[in-house]
Amino acid sequence: MDILKKLQQEFEIKASQVENTVKLLDEGNTVPFIARYRKEMTGSLDDQIIRQLSERLTALRNLEEKREQVKNAIAEQGNLTEELAMKLDAAETQTEIDDIYRPFRPKRRTRASIAKEKGLQPLADMIWGQKLIGTLEDFAAVFVDAEKGVETIADAIQGAKDILAEQISDDADLRKTLREATVQYGALLSRKTKDEPSVYEMYYDYQEPLKKAAGHRILAVNRGEKEGFLSVKIEGEEEKLLQRMERKIIRKNSDTAEILQEVIADSYKRLIAPSLEREIRNDLTEKAEESAIGVFRENLKQLLLQPPISGKVVLALDPAYRTGCKIAVIDETGKPLETAVVYPTPPQNKTAEAEKKLLGLIEKYGVDLISIGNGTASRESELFVAEMLKKTKRKVQYIIANEAGASVYSASKLGAEEFPEYDVSLRSAVSIGRRIQDPLAELVKIDPKSIGVGQYQHDMNQKRLGEALGGVVEDCVNSVGVDLNTASPALLSYVAGINGTVAKNILKYREENGRFSARKELLKVPKLGPKAYEQCAGFLRLPESEMALDRTGVHPESYKAAEGLLKLCGYTLEDVAAKKVTGLAKKIKSPEKTAAELGIGLPTLEDIIRELEKPGRDPREDAPAPVLRSDVLSMEDLQEGMVLTGTVRNVIDFGVFVDIGVHQDGLVHISQICDRFIKHPLEAVKLGDVVQVKVLSVDLQKKRISLTMKNI
Fold this sequence. Notes:
Number of helices: 30
Shape: globular
Distance between the termini: 53 Å
Oligomer: single chain
């Protein structure tokens, strides 16, 4: 397989883009660095495409390795023919390679191998040849041998049938044909195994064509089966498949047609169908997981890139019943000022006492915003806060924060190192406040798998999910950039070229030598060599550096070009520091000529212009601002037809969940998102979007709210 050509076809990009990107990856460059600082070589491929190409490159190389292993294994047996080698070379999937290798793979003792040991292969060959001289029984009688365990003619014929059944099952071309036909015409069936209510009730008597089976339904029945509520199977059109096998195997005027029909039926039912079912279900699950990971990736990206609410003193509230609500007041920089525990919720209901404490903290520290975790007792806490805010003269609003993963962080080694003086619950409160001030900086401290913005994440291949989500975090961190003098080790470890050890070394250097004054000072950090410096330097910012370009996303390798551009346009580095550089693009009459004169490519010139005009710009500024509230609705307040403003909290295959301020998120089914047809909600909406919705129905008993975004 020509891997580069295959990648070019799959990604529909130029050969030079593939060749250069693969070369850069093989040289040890990181995806963010390639996407941001090697645009001339990649043709400006974005980080998402480069990451997907990198993953596919690894998969294809693994496939090549597997192909060579199988070739060598067959060759060692002395069975590698030119035809087999050509078939292996043409195979494009792991399944096809496995099918070709199947007859040569060492097997445990089977009915067929036992029959071969009894010397029944010639009898099987005679039946397979389909021409008899005399009767089959006469020929089979020759093989009756009590010492070999062949007691009767029937035993001999049965042994031969077992050999042929396995031979048919091992036919790679036939297996491929049957697999494709099963996927095309077969169905997924699920039935209940328990006569009791569950979340899987819609699958208690369920059937769906395999070619139409949606990923989220595949994952749902898998989980239902795992939890013992469902039995699941794949049903092909058995009669049609058997007829297809007979047409392929049985010749006209065959003398052994009847016995071969029996063999074919046995081979299909006993050997082929069960293994095809496993293979097809594994394939369906793998595709469903990849689709779900894609949704999870997009949701996580939008969550991490939510705009920070900066410059506000936040009172964070981690709700609970019996143990009370944990409170943390944090200043504009995220530093904890004071912590407390209050009990406004059942069973203690010390509302007046809690109110007095919180109003005191609001006045004492000039609180601007209250961040309420959306977990247990969130509803009661929100009602309490909304009533309390009516009793303060300060303009204080509140926001419901997604607290997914806060408890994971607070109980982690990282949480303990950051706040050794606080117990687990108070660390969680601090995290809930900080994730409003700067979602990215706080959420990177949590395993991305613990941030609940997907579907069925616990049912997936955790290694694959972890790798995919880790890539998203890395891309987000580097697209925003990191302040070298304030970043935590968790944030630094996601910067291109920096691992956990180097991140800790940066922190140690900062503690021992004070704040970094220039990017080049990074080269003094232990274990941060020239290659790591090349990868990370452009993503690390120094907002107070005397060297103005250190404040921007311009890479040090382009400083000379940036200074040359400033000189051409009549500006200085002091103008960059004062944010007085404007209209650079208009002053350049021929961008291509200017780029050539500066010794850089056109994409790099365009990036430098953007950075000089808006040094250190935060791309999150373009995202919709979070919805802040000062009053509260309940589900009982909702009426059919009511129009509300809400925030998209989660996007899944069949719709989106929208926070409309009633604690219980409402569901907008995919059919209610927009007037045009869409295959997936992500085509029309993304996590964090502020949207207008209309209430379709409210089920108080099941706590379900149905919404629409159409005709508003």
